[in-house]
């Protein structure tokens, strides 16, 4: 029996509610398969932990996480702890310390899922964002001088290293080549005359190594418009940390809503564990009511099982989500239903069982 050691960080708000369902679906698959199992170790880190200990995670938290096969995270952030503290000291520090430099975010409209775009069907919204996840606008470099004084100055530097820019663009080209898809780069060189000129030059240089991959390059403002008017233009997309953050929420809006949006923080060299999480936050407005949509968390569990070497099971989980959406009987309120988080998770797990039995 193969054992996968998973670090479970439910975090705050609905994070705690949705990870239960992703875990349920993974355990269901492991039981069906019978050759592997998940060993979950839960870490109570987050904003509540902060109020008791004055820190978001244990002092040796990163060392504790290092030996796991993967990290499964719910969401971080809650009123009472400043967001820049809670997020930088838990989520972002893990992404950056473990060199999870690829943030892989599918924007994929499932059958039956609502889209704010008219006349679109599932085939037309099928993109994968490759978001730079280790530096750029999130580098955390800057200064706040003379606070409160007339001379007050705030600096927030974007950092684009040659290594960091090349590796994310190369990763995206490899993915596009493997999947036989086009690659679109999104930047903003007309205004950001150092960083984004460098990004574009790097993209153009690496492009020469992949003559078989069709490419496009858009400014981020135009790209935001085109994602709404012509989403079919985008297949694989590579962009910076901040642009990727913003555009994948837009991606969520055109592919079923934030309740579907998933993200994998990948360390491609596997020198440290990768981390899997829904794109959404802790949603304090609906927390503790048992009504959060668990699809995004379940989908990120699918990304995790793919990373562990079972892509066919990842696809099976996504199909189980799709079946749940299509049948419309068991959905949370954000999708017009009346079901609880738990009922939706249980329904997806049932579909996983049925799909598993009919597949062989
Ligand atoms: P949010 O994603 O938590 O919520 C935005 C809106 O979407 C809310 O109305 C919420 O009710 C709804 N929503 C989100 N997920 C949902 C789900 N699964 N089912 C149904 N509805 C859902 O974003 P926010 O309100 O901007 O941020 C709240 C907190 O979460 C902040 O502290 C923020 O910093 C943090 N945050 C954390 C992460 C993360 O941990 N990855 C991501 C985004 C925001
Ligand atoms: C996301 C989130 C985070 C980000 C925040 C919470 C720091 O919005 O994962 O999309 O900006 O990366
Ligand atoms: Mn975001």
Question: What does the model show?
Answer:
The strands form 2 sheets. A 10-stranded mixed beta sheet has the order 2-1-3-12-11-4-5-10-8-9, sandwiched between helices. A two-stranded antiparallel ribbon has the order 6-7. It has 360 residues and is of the alpha/beta class. The radius of gyration is 20 Å and the shape is globular. The protein has helices at residues 14-33, 47-53, 61-66, 83-97, 162-179, 195-207, 220-229, 241-254, 295-307, 311-327, 341-359; strands at 2-11, 36-42, 70-75, 102-108, 126-132, 136-145, 153-159, 183-187, 215-219, 236-239, 262-266, 274-278. It has 2 domains: 1-110 and 261-360, Isopropylmalate Dehydrogenase, CATH 3.40.718; 115-255, 3-Layer(aba) Sandwich (Isopropylmalate Dehydrogenase).
Key structural traits:
single chain; about 350 residues; alpha/beta; Isopropylmalate Dehydrogenase; ten-stranded mixed β-sheet; two-stranded antiparallel sheet; 11 helices; 12 strands; about 40% helix; globular; binds nicotinamide-adenine-dinucleotide; binds 3-isopropylmalic acid; binds manganese (II) ion
């Amino acid at each position: 029996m193969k054992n996968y050691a998973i670090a479970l960080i439910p975090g705050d708000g609905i994070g705690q509610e949705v990870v239960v369902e992703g875990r349920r679906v993974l355990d269901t698959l492991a039981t069906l398969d019978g050759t592997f199992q998940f060993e979950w170790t839960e870490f109570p880190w987050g904003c509540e932990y902060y109020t008791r200990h004055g820190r978001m995670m244990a002092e040796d938290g990163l060392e504790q996480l290092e030996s796991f096969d993967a990290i499964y995270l719910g969401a971080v952030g809650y009123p009472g702890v400043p967001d820049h503290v809670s997020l930088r000291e838990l989520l972002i520090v893990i992404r950056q310390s473990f060199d999870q430099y690829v943030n892989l975010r599918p924007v994929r409209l499932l059958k039956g899922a609502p889209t704010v775009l008219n006349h679109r069907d599932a085939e037309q919204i099928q993109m994968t964002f490759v978001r730079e996840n280790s530096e750029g606008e999130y580098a955390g470099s800057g200064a706040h001088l003379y606070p409160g004084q007339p001379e007050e100055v705030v600096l927030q530097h974007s950092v684009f290293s040659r290594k960091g820019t090349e590796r994310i663009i190369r990763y995206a080209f490899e993915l596009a080549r493997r999947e036989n898809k086009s690659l679109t780069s999104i930047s903003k060189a007309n205004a950001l005359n150092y960083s984004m000129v460098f990004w574009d030059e790097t993209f153009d240089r690496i492009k020469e190594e992949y003559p078989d991959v069709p490419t496009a390059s858009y400014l981020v403002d135009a790209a935001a418009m085109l994602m709404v008017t012509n989403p079919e233009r985008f297949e694989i997309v590579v962009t910076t940390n901040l642009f990727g953050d913003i555009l994948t929420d837009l991606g969520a809006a055109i592919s079923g809503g934030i309740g579907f949006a998933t993200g994998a923080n990948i360390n491609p060299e596997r020198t440290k564990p990768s981390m899997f999480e829904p794109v959404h936050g802790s949603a304090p407005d609906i927390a503790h009511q048992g009504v959060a949509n668990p699809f995004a968390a379940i989908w990120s569990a699918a990304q995790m099982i793919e990373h562990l070497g079972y892509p066919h099971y990842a696809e099976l989980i996504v199909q189980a989500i799709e079946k749940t959406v299509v049948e419309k009987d068991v959905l949370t309120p954000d999708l017009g239903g009346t079901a609880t988080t738990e009922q939706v998770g249980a329904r997806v797990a049932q579909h996983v069982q049925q799909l598993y039995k009919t597949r062989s």
